[in-house]
């Protein structure tokens, strides 16, 4: 499945050698970048392996996974082809395992582990005693808040049994109209509940708070921005950090600046990668603003080089694959992230620092552009080749016939083949 044709391999080698030679002339080592890309890893979310939807509809594709085991099988394909997706991020209760030890064993068999677990108090589950319609951690009724905290304790227990070491908390809490809730006291109630969750963290665990400006609360979300998220993380303690979901920002927000601020405060916990044109679009990472993605990775590479205290980012994908094949979209996403990371590794940091020092605005900018405009694809392909993955994951996936095979096996996955007209 992974062996490229002889022609593809020969062409790759020629492209790689030509690029390595060109980089060497600029004082950059291709080898160093390939090794760095080889260390890059991102987690795949369990909810992204089926077709996503919008408020208006969902169009399931063929061979969608019906069970958590089938989702893991698909995630293993993403890892096998990219060499960079060794962990799955579970969402509870959407992907609540029936048998935790069995799931852990299956994952190990597939070469997978578990990344941060995700809680859900943004919707009511069947049989749930109290409703989250008016909030969970921010609810005025203490018994609703207790129920939400209890859910988080349960998610941590499941995560611990699976070998995860972090929980991501995204709260939909907020108000749709002025006057609906106290802007100040709702935040205090959220912080109080998070203190209880933080106290339940097992040794070595981290808690990530994820901010989002609006939706489903359209007037005032309690954890609406990185500032609120930072206040929570700082109040909670050392093991609480902020998670940056790229789509959870208003248009034109300078996300690399947000990243730099959180890095400076030692509170950058991780990412939910995706891309956005208008709002929380959950599009493929790098599909709309590849330069922005590169500039974010530039901040991350700087933090790596400077060995910033507390820098141990958890990289995760959070996308909705509405019209692309979910596995293909994930392959494309991992490729885009590897590419942005590789380009950020190509930045000439010494030159950049010198131009900043001498106030040469144009040449400082050009250092970044030089790296961004370099076609780094041969470096990424080489990293994958060395990991035993695919030179071109999407084409390798298509050639493998995997989707057709699982479509035949996964009867009742909800897909209705198109009728001929
Ligand atoms: Mn997210």
Ordered list of secondary-structure elements with their pairings:
Layout (H helix, E strand, L loop, with lengths): L5 H20 L4 H10 L4 E2 L22 H15 L4 E3 L10 H10 L3 E2 L2 E2 L23 H21 L3 E5 L3 E2 L7 H17 L6 E5 L9 E2 L4 H11 L3 E6 L9 H10 L3 E6 L16 H16 L8 E4 L8 H20 L3 H10 L2 H12 L4 H10 L6 H8 L1 H8 L12
The structure holds manganese (II) ion.
Can you walk me through this structure?
The structure is a single chain. The protein is an alpha/beta fold. Helix content is 47%, strand content 9%. Strands 4-5-7-9-10-11 form a six-stranded parallel β-sheet. A three-stranded parallel β-sheet has the order 1-2-3, covered by helices on one side. α2 (30-39) crosses α13 and α5 (142-162) packs parallel to α6. The model has no long low-confidence stretch (mean pLDDT 96). Bound molecules: manganese (II) ion. The site of manganese (II) ion has 5 residues, from loops.
Ligand types: manganese (II) ion
Q: Return the average pLDDT rounded to an integer.
A: 96
Beta-strand share of residues = 5-15%
Major beta sheet, specifics? 6 strands, parallel
Number of strands: 11
Shape: globular
Low-confidence stretches: none
Strand order of the largest sheet: 4-5-7-9-10-11
Structural class: alpha/beta
How much helix is in the residues? 40-55%
Radius of gyration, in angstroms, nearest whole number: 22 Å
What is the first-to-last residue Cα distance? 35 Å
Number of helices: 15
**Helix/strand order:** HHEHEHEEHEEHEEHEHEHEHHHHHH
């Amino acid at each position: 499945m992974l062996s490229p044709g002889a022609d593809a391999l020969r062409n790759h080698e020629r492209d790689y050698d030509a690029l390595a030679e060109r980089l060497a002339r600029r004082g950059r080592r291709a080898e160093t970048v390939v090794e760095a890309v080889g260390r890059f890893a991102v987690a795949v979310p369990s909810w992204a392996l089926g077709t996503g939807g919008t408020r208006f509809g969902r169009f399931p594709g063929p061979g969608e996974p019906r069970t958590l085991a089938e989702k893991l099988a698909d995630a293993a394909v993403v890892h096998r082809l990219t060499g960079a997706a060794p962990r799955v991020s579970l969402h509870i209760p959407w992907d609540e395992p029936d048998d935790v030890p069995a799931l852990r064993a299956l994952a190990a068999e597939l070469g997978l582990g578990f990344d941060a677990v995700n809680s859900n108090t943004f919707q009511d589950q069947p049989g749930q005693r109290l409703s989250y319609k008016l909030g969970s951690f921010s609810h005025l009724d203490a018994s609703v808040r207790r129920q939400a905290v209890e859910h988080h304790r349960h998610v941590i227990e499941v995560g611990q049994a699976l070998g995860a070491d972090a929980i991501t908390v995204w709260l939909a809490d907020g108000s749709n109209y002025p006057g609906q809730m106290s802007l100040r006291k709702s935040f205090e109630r959220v912080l109080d509940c998070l203190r209880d969750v933080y106290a339940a963290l097992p040794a070595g665990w981290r808690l990530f708070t994820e901010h989002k400006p609006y939706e489903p609360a359209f007037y005032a979300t309690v954890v609406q921005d990185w500032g609120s998220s930072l206040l929570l993380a700082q109040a909670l303690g050392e093991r609480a950090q902020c998670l940056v979901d790229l789509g959870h920002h208003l248009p034109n927000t300078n996300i690399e600046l947000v990243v730099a601020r959180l890095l400076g405060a030692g509170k950058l916990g991780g990412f939910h990668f995706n891309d956005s044109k208008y709002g929380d679009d959950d599009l493929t990472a790098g599909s709309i603003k590849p330069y922005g993605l590169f500039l974010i990775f530039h901040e991350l590479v700087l933090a790596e080089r400077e060995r910033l205290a507390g820098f141990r980012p958890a990289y995760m994908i959070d996308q909705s694959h509405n019209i692309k094949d979910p596995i293909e979209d994930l392959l494309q996403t991992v490729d885009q992230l590897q590419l942005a990371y590789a380009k950020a590794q190509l930045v000439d940091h010494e030159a950049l620092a010198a131009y900043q020092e001498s106030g040469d605005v144009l040449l400082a900018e050009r250092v970044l552009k030089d790296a961004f405009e370099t076609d780094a694809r041969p470096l990424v392909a080489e990293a994958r080749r060395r990991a035993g993955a695919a030179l071109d994951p999407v084409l390798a996936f298509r050639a493998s016939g995997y989707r057709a095979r699982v479509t035949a096996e996964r009867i009742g996955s909800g897909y209705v083949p198109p009728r001929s007209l």
